[in-house]
Amino acid sequence: MKHIVILGNGIGGITTARHVRKLSQHRITVVSGETEHFFSRTALMYLYMGHMKYEHIKPYEDFFWAKNRIELRQAWVKSIDFEKKELHFAQSTSEPLGYDILVLATGSTPSYFEWPGQELPGVQGLYSYQDLERMETAAPRGTSRGVVVGGGLIGVEMAEMLLSRDIPVTLLVREKSYWGNVLPREESELVSRHIREHGVDLRFGAELAEIKPDASGQRVGSIKTTSGEEIAGPFVGLATGVRPNVDFLRGTSLEVDRGILVNKYLETNLPDVYALGDCAQHREPPAGRKPVEQIWYTGRIMGETLARTLCGTRTPYTPGVFYNSAKFFDIEYQTYGQVPARLDADTGTFYWEHPEGRIALRINFEKETGAVTGFNACGLRLRHEVCARWIEQQSTLSHVMQHLREAHFDPEFFRRHEPAIAAAFRAAHPAQASSLQGKRSWRERWFSF
Amino acid sequence: MRSLKKIGLGIFLLGFVAWVGTLTMGQFTLTDAILKQELKPEHYELLRPALEPMIGRTYASPFGFGRDFNTAFGRINDDFKANQQWDSVIYDNYAFPVARAASAGVLTESTLLWFWLTFGLAILGALLYILPNLRQLPGIKNDHIYHRSMTSRGWLGISLGVFLIVFYVGLYFYPEYLVNWTLLVDPLSRALSGNPASQWFLYGFIYTLAIVVMGVRMLIKYRHSPYQMLRTGSVMFFQTSFAFIIPEVLVALNRPYYDFKNIWPLDYDFFFDWHLNTLLSNGTLGVFMLVWGIALAFIAVPILSYFYGKRWYCSWVCGCGGLAETLGDPYRQLSDKSLKAWKIERYLVHSVLVFAVVMTALVLYTYFTGQAKIGPVDSYSVRSVYGFWIGALFSGVVGTGFYPYMGNRVWCRFGCPLAAYIGLVQRFKSRFRITTNGGQCISCGNCSTYCEMGIDVRWYAQRGQDVVRASCVGCGICSSVCPRGVLNLENADPDSRVTVAPEVLFGNDMPKIK
Ligand SMILES: Cc1cc2nc3c(=O)[nH]c(=O)nc-3n(C[C@H](O)[C@H](O)[C@H](O)COP(=O)(O)OP(=O)(O)OC[C@H]3O[C@@H](n4cnc5c(N)ncnc54)[C@H](O)[C@@H]3O)c2cc1C
Ligand code: SF4
Ligand code: SF4
């Protein structure tokens, strides 16, 4: 029996702990500074908006940990002595904690760009539970305006949060369109329209230059963009991305680049030290993957994989077909496979959008073989297994079009869009025309839509 | 939009306060003629002397009247009991009909005016409060549910719970104090059935009103979801027609009062002797009603639940479910999701089912053999124990009164014997399940939080296992609130339900060990 110490109780660390427990009798200690228990970071926004309370975003009841003999320790680690195999805590009175195996799952931290004034009260990012608590006090109802900087997922979440308290929002996006480095133009426009529909003052090509204090000098009062425009707002949300939370590990024998460097077994350069989740940087990422992938799902998949290795079966990290999802106000978004913002020459694309402009489906394919390579769905739920299988088996676009109903995952009685999508496909690709197969829903049969 | 809502709320409160205020209005004068008319002759003889001091006296509210009447009435019965004259003890409830007959004043004179000043204003206000929500974009809008006192067990919520509990206690045990409210709906009752309004008619009216008005709120809140709209429309329809209007019209036609969608054992007195006798003395229609009721319970329930799961009844048709899904919607998040609550639920709800079955068996035994005693137990006392503890206290007082404390399905989850019965079908032999979409769950907890049945839906979703639970009423809210489109209510081959979690979630290609 070994003592496995896991630093970080996010999805990466906790998945590792749970699976190690399933597979072995090792002693497990999870150390984390942020909160005593694992919570769902992705749900932080719902606390501010009053959809849930903290207890609801904890995926396991508190008795779970003792029952599964997973020891929890809430403390900040200041440094790690890899020679002696010890963690040293920020609180000097705490004894160092020894380990046989160390798993680093320290997650991310918001990244700022050294803007003047970024340390002023009322300026913050949103990553940790403490950030959320700060936002509660910094942006109460009645705040005259919130300026959110950053056209990514967290930016739009912050905008939605502020609006829920009737705080007007200006959202500054440096690119020419919303999340333009990830979303193709049509989806980006669709989402932008929706964000504006909610009353957000959405500005493209607007870059933050400086954050200025208010008259008291005690907190933020306004921001200035690179074009010289000043926007007043007593709250500034910085959602300009995250970077691996590894600063306290720099300058040690552990090899760190942007994140902690790991091989495909999630092993670091040091024996008995592993890293996973947001803080890990893959030396040789799987095909089509980025070295650092800061998303919930990959953290979980790495945890499942690493637990195998820790319990004696050395297992490489093999995530399946890429997938991700998000929600922009009321529009759900799912993606499977590769749907880059800009197509390369070998890839074709088929895009359908509902006339009302809130629902869309994109399918990318290899021009030469017709094999589908990726799906984007907005306002439409697709079945994960089916999309992944089509991509994995390199099904052709016309096959997918014929069998589109299999991917349907919207609730019962929802309007079925397959006929319209298939018709659009026939119009765009007459040569590949083939009819839609599968059972029609009762709604289509009775009301023909 | 906001100011319209505020005006609406103000008007609603005005109507509500006026409504509560009407309880204290009117004059109540007991006369000999009333006693003669309302009491059985033998009881008239017994009660008249004790009630003598009340006769001719005018009370300014039903409370003084009711108190005096009950005191006199209780004294007589106490004497009988003290003298062991058990046969003379009066069990009839006379306080309510006598109070109604004795009432006079503005409510009886200008009933319609007061109807509009109370119910009318409340409805108008509620609609003005609800309709502006149409201006929000469609989508899940659960903002501030945990910030509001009303929906997060704050003082407003607690007060509402107290009000509901007091209301139910009054309704079941002290209807004489609510007599003014029945006066308000008297014209409607007379129009429908030809009879004066009883406290049960009042209850049915308020119940239906709550489902319809709060149903409109549901229709607006979930207008992005055809599933929710259809389901809500369905409970509104079944409540208004099957539960409220049709039974009254049957009475007007001199037919037995009958709710065609109420099913034994929720309808626990279906097999009571008086009910069977009523049906059997009503010719073909009565026999049809009897056969219909039995077929619903023993044929329709298993078959429909096999095909569609519990939802075909619990969240599409049932009256208790209808109230829970409309009036109770703002409280669904308050159900306890802990493992402990699940354990208690299983013991409790199945015990009630056993109780209902045993009670019915005893009642039928008595019906067919004419013998009340089976060993030491008396089937009459068993049924009255059931009626009091389960029928009145559990399903009524706790079932609805506890909405603001324990969520909108307290009765359905912990007490309803029909739910327990359908649940067994759903759990063990049904095509229904809630599927989870590959590996898309982000463990956010919206589904669990908003599951009114206290099911920890996330526990299933995050391990890729279908939700196959006896208690799930198929309301579909978990699927609606999921921000990642993970959950879907589906019907397919029962054996295709994923009841054992995969070793690792979909999306990880590493080889399986097993
Ligand atoms: C607001 C928000 C919304 C998001 N939404 C989505 C989404 O919808 N979909 C998606 O795929 N991803 C989403 N993400 C990203 C996702 O949450 C992260 O990728 C994921 O949580 C990372 O998990 P992790 O286990 O690697 O690290 P973390 O969850 O960050 O956990 C690391 C833990 O380690 C602790 N720790 C770090 N250093 C120390 C130390 N020195 N001493 C003690 N403790 C330490 C930290 O306090 C933290 O608790 C979102 C992120 C945020 C902030
Ligand atoms: S599991 Fe979902 S469908 Fe079932 S009762 Fe709960 S919220 Fe409703
Ligand atoms: S609401 Fe959806 S994403 Fe959130 S925990 Fe439930 S299934 Fe998972």
Automatic annotation (TrEMBL), chain A:
A molecular function GO annotation: oxidoreductase activity
Keyword Transcription among UniProt keywords: no
Taxonomic superkingdom: Bacteria
SUPFAM superfamilies, alphabetized: FAD/NAD(P)-binding domain (SSF51905)
Reported cofactor(s): FAD
Entries under Gene3D superfamilies matching the protein: FAD/NAD(P)-binding domain
TM annotation in the entry: none
Record carries keyword Flavoprotein: yes
Residue intervals of the FAD/NAD(P)-binding domain: 3-282
Keywords of this entry: FAD, Flavoprotein
Pfam family, one: Pyr_redox_2
InterPro entries from the UniProt entry: FAD-bd_OxRdtase (IPR050260), FAD/NAD-bd_sf (IPR036188), FAD/NAD-binding_dom (IPR023753)
PANTHER family: NITRITE REDUCTASE [NAD(P)H], PYRIDINE NUCLEOTIDE-DISULFIDE OXIDOREDUCTASE DOMAIN-CONTAINING
Similarity annotation: Belongs to the FAD-dependent oxidoreductase family.
Name recorded for this polypeptide: NAD(P)H-nitrite reductase large subunit
UniProtKB/TrEMBL annotation, chain B:
A GO molecular-function annotation: metal ion binding
Matching PROSITE patterns: 4FE4S_FER_1, 4FE4S_FER_2
Domain 4Fe-4S ferredoxin-type: 432-460, 463-492
Alphabetized UniProt keyword annotations: 4Fe-4S, Electron transport, Iron, Iron-sulfur, Membrane, Metal-binding, Transmembrane, Transmembrane helix, Transport
Superkingdom of origin: Bacteria
Record field: transmembrane: 7-30, 113-134, 155-174, 200-220, 232-253, 285-307, 347-368, 388-405
Pfam families tied to this protein: Fer4_5, Fer4_9
One Gene Ontology CC term in the entry: plasma membrane
InterPro entries the UniProt entry points to: 4Fe4S_Fe-S-bd, 4Fe4S_Fe_S_CS, Electron_Trans/Redox
Protein's name in the database: Polyferredoxin
